[in-house]
Task: inverse folding
């Protein structure tokens, strides 16, 4: 019997119950990858607007996933210039 249970798909009710509840049902590798693709497309769209000169573009909220708290406002990442400035400061170059 245990052999059969171990072969259940990732999105099954049994696996969802083990993960923490019904909100996990249907969340298999494919669902996570689709949510990641959705988030990447949203960030790419924002990047295109910023590259075109748009001002005050808010970063998009990620697609909701079970087990993750949704923040009121997504965290703002650092720009390439900020990262490069930090690297140059650490290396002591200008």
Result:
């Amino acid at each position: 019997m245990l052999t059969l249970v171990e072969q259940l798909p990732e999105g099954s009710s049994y696996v969802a119950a083990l993960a923490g509840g019904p909100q996990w049902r249907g969340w298999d590798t494919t669902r996570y990858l689709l949510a990641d693709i959705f988030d990447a497309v949203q960030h790419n769209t924002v990047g295109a607007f910023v590259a075109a000169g748009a001002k005050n573009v808010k970063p998009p909220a990620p697609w909701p996933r079970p087990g993750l708290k949704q923040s009121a406002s997504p965290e703002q990442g650092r720009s390439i210039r900020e990262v490069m400035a930090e690297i140059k400061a650490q290396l002591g170059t200008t």
